[in-house]
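As a warm-up, study this chain.
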Amino acid sequence: MLISVIITTYNSPDFLEKCLKSFLEQDDKNFEIIVADDGSSPSTKDIIESFKDSSLKIYHAWHEDEGFRAAKIRNEAVKLSSGEFLIFIDGDCIVFKDFIKNHRNISEKGFFSRGNRAKLSQKFSKKIISEEDQNKIGIFKLVWLRLNSDINRLMPVLRFPNYPFKKLQKKKWKGAKTCNLGVWKSDFEIVNGYDESYIGWGREDSDFVVRLINNNIYRKEAIFATGLLHLNHKIISRENFSKNDKLLKDTIENKKLCAKNGYKKQ
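Now compare it with the structure written out below.
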């Protein structure tokens, strides 16, 4: 089974380069990458081009910069994908070498996979970009980072692959985010992908997950298996959040199954 990794980015070439490098050492090599570029300048394309001669199968989806349109560019990236299973992450995230392998092992028909993340301090974000290999950070170093507030929590980077409560909260949408989310492409198509009515930061991923659950496609935890590192950066403007929040409430209250303004226009 081919896995398609959708990486969302916007004008953060240093972060994207580190993110892409983290996929070079995957234990499981049967995947492709589609960078969902929300209108970045040419420097982002240059980074992507620099990986063309690497072992990565990498493609670039781009549209004009008309503000934060993550929902739309993710849909466009999926149109370029060939995999049966999709994994969504952000370009400011770094994965460990077991990331693809563990997502594959957890994938199950009728479920989407919810992973998590640990946030890094600004100081350690700069260090890991230029110096550190995340796959060589052991438990003692992680504890030291936590004690020094260079990582906000340890749970996402711990590994307990036999965690027994993967389906304990199968109808819960809160906490499932596209910084680490796996879904079958066929299920993505059932709900018509992301709702492109969401413009500006926030809630487009929650809306997507709510519609999956409304279609009896349930949550399966990928914590203690696929946790990744989130690089520190400036907070994105959230001026449209209240509008997006209203859209989400409408989806929840009306038990919406499918996005009209989504992957395929209806």
